[in-house]
Write a structure and sequence with these properties.
Number of helices: 7
Shape: globular
CATH topology: Rossmann fold
Distance between the termini: 37 Å
Bound molecules: glutamine
CATH architecture: 3-Layer(aba) Sandwich
Strand order of the largest sheet: 2-1-3-4-14-13
Strand content: 25-35%
Number of domains: 1
Largest sheet: 6 strands, mixed
Radius of gyration: 17 Å
CATH class: Alpha Beta
Structural class: alpha/beta
CATH superfamily: Class I glutamine amidotransferase (GATase) domain
């Protein structure tokens, strides 16, 4: 079995290093003896419909609207819709998440049609651009540890009734607009505002997405990435402790040893 990973438009949506997500998926398959290929789809290339997993990254307003058009935004069908209907998994980060929604903000500041795979809309945020480290406590059904990443966006994403968030934001803005959540999920389409690349910082998320595509996976030794995660979570912790009086903590969620969340 060779798992095909479609890396969509890194020339348009490569600003924040999210192409690394494809590399992480391929590496974690390789470390388990599973063959994979990364199909890099550049602007203007036809989008293959036969990949098992697609990754779409973040970028600026103009390139993201070009990417949306090439993915069939505003039309019925489109290659990514066909792939998802056939069971493909999609990871969409920031601009990627925005353009897979129903509408997003175009480069002219007006609503532009999205690809329609995620039940969400994105509008310009009222406040300052949202930039910095993010910590997300994932929803229980995902079975994931706390997620770490960074964000850099102006858009605020609102979920429709057909979508679920990834989880509660414990630091940073995520979807913004006071929602207190990050991400948009519909079936096997998984959107988030977390850059990092998010799968480098959160190997458990990489394995969850891979398991959706290929089934159960053997565990790997992730001690090195645990060190990276601990370092990133420590970077957020002092600021959080200072702000603690203004933060609402859900019972059972505490900072422990300055490193892990539980
Ligand atoms: N251009 C979008 C925004 O600012 C997405 C940015 C990104 O992908 N980081 O909201």
């Amino acid at each position: 079995m060779t798992v095909s990973i479609g890396l969509l438009f890194p020339d348009l949506l490569g600003t924040y290093g999210d192409s690394g997500n494809a590399a992480i998926l391929a590496a974690r398959l390789r470390w388990r003896g599973i063959d994979s290929e990364v199909l890099t789809v550049r602007s203007g290339d036809p989008v293959p419909v036969g990949c098992q997993i697609y990754v779409v990254g973040g970028g600026e307003d103009l390139p993201q609207s070009q990417a949306a058009r090439q993915l069939g935004a505003g039309r019925d069908g489109g290659p990514l819709r066909q792939a998802v209907d056939a069971g493909a998994v999609v990871l969409a980060v920031c601009a990627g998440q925005q353009i897979l929604g129903l509408t997003f903000t175009g480069p002219d500041g007006r609503p532009a049609p999205g690809v329609g795979l995620l039940d969400c809309t994105t509008v310009p945020g009222a406040g300052a651009r949202m930039v910095g480290e993010v910590v997300v406590e994932p929803d229980d059904d995902l079975g994931l540890p706390v997620l770490t990443g960074y964000e850099n966006h102006a858009g605020v994403t609102r979920l429709g009734p057909g979508a679920r968030p990834v989880g509660r934001v414990r630091a940073g803005s995520g979807n913004g607009g006071g929602s207190g959540v990050d991400g948009v999920r519909v079936g096997k389409v998984f959107g988030t505002y977390l850059h990092g690349p998010v799968l480098a910082r959160n190997p458990a998320l990489a394995d969850l997405l891979l398991s959706w595509a290929v089934g159960a996976l053997d565990p790997l030794d992730d001690r090195e990435s645990e060190d990276l995660r601990a370092e990133r979570l420590r970077a957020v912790a002092p600021a959080r402790r200072r702000r603690r009086s203004g933060v609402r903590w859900r019972s059972g969620v505490r900072w422990r040893s300055g490193v892990r969340w539980q």
